[in-house]
């Protein structure tokens, strides 16, 4: 309902490797984003049953540098991580966005302090939902 499907279908895909999943009606108790991710992961597993490697969960309105995914994979492999996430630069074009986005980021860092999220001994976990690379085996 937010235009993500329309944006994703408009992405150039010369190698025909992009699959856009048309979502089903969200069941009670599910948030929209998690329901969309669940459906996407299910479809990806159908298309690529090999569970080695990684899956990238990203929003359609995020433009990735061509090297970005390789950088995330290299970080995950070098540090033996099941998940790598980066907060991308958020669009702050309107007055409302310039007021709300910094407050959102500040609140996010209060809920998920980066020092604790990045500490392997900490039970605190967090990810910026727009860009999350996850090892397939961790999605069991």
TrEMBL record:
Keyword entries, A-Z: Transferase
Keyword Transferase assigned: yes
GO terms, molecular function: transferase activity
Keyword GTP-binding in record: no
Protein name from the UniProt record: Glycosyl transferase
Organism from which the protein derives: Novacetimonas hansenii
């Amino acid at each position: 309902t937010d235009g993500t499907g329309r944006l994703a279908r408009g992405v150039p895909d010369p190698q025909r490797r992009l699959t856009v999943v048309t979502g089903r009606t969200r069941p009670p108790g599910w948030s929209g984003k998690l329901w969309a991710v669940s459906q996407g992961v299910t479809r990806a597993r159908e298309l690529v049953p090999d569970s080695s490697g990684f899956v990238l969960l990203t929003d359609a309105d995020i433009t990735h540098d061509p090297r970005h995914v390789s950088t995330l994979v290299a970080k995950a492999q070098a540090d033996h991580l099941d998940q790598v996430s980066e907060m991308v630069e958020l669009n702050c074009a309107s007055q409302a966005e310039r007021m709300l986005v910094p407050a959102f980021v500040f609140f996010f860092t209060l809920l998920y302090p980066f020092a604790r999220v990045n500490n392997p001994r900490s039970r605190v976990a967090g990810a910026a939902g727009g860009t999350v690379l996850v090892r397939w085996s961790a999605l069991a």
